[in-house]
Amino acid sequence: FSTAIVITEQPISVSVPVGYSFTLRCRAEGRTSLQYQWFSQYQSVCCQIPGATKEDLPITAQQTQLYTCRINDLYKNAVFSDWVKVEVHQCVARGLPPRLWRGEPVIVLNPTEQRVEVGKPLQLQCAAMGVPAPSYQWYRNGNLLEHQKKKKLWITHAKVSDSGTYLCCASNSHGEHWTNAVDIHIGGATLPPAERLQLCHLVFPLATGKIALLVGNNRYQHHPNLMAPVTDVFELSLLLEQLGFQVVSLLD
User: Fold this and answer.
1) pTM for the complete prediction?
2) Per the database record, which ranges form the Ig-like domain (predicted)?
3) Are residues 183 and 110 both part of a single domain?
4) Best label site of 20, 41, 127, 231, fewest CB within 10 Å?
5) Minimal CA–CA distance to 151: which of 165, 166, 164, 170?
6) Which residues of 162-188 are buried (b: 16+ CB within 10 A; e: fewer)?
């Protein structure tokens, strides 16, 4: 005769500063009394935690590792809880987390401004503490980036259209917190100064003709006519001719 064990409360992943004390909780129901045993995994080595045989596992955070709880009944049925991650931030700025921290997201790493050549990888990174561990969502120019939902934003081959202002929102059940906004520039490869100077010497002797195009509008469909553009174009064309420009002036 076997009976099912149902986990009614799974443990949750957290992201906390080193030295922070908290409790992982697991709850289950069965037809007989239940026994609990917690396990941890660090750098792919999994081991049973001695004496961790209760529903609650008190932890003082020391290093990032994974945890799971095994529950068995008197009929030798056993189930494991979800694996959860306890992410531990070793270096946290002074004053973080706030003194009365209740687990709301706190940004501990902001992305940095970057210039990237077209076709090269773009990587932005942020991190936040939170209980539960925050989820992440990246934005570019205020628009949500559908597939960028991790601490690291990764674009394998950057395009010019990937340029813009990026920021990330970290959120959990207690609220949300935004990173700083950073400008990302995607462009062509920049030449070393000596080669750039050489290129200037090659190009500029060819650019001998100087042409200025001036356009003055003074008739508008939904606005009274303006008089200033006529005089502006006239005065500007005189000035530019004195500077050696060939001037083409257009009105309306």
Assistant:
1) 0.70
2) 3-81, 105-185
3) yes
4) 231
5) 170
6) bbbebbbbbbbeeeebbbebbebebee
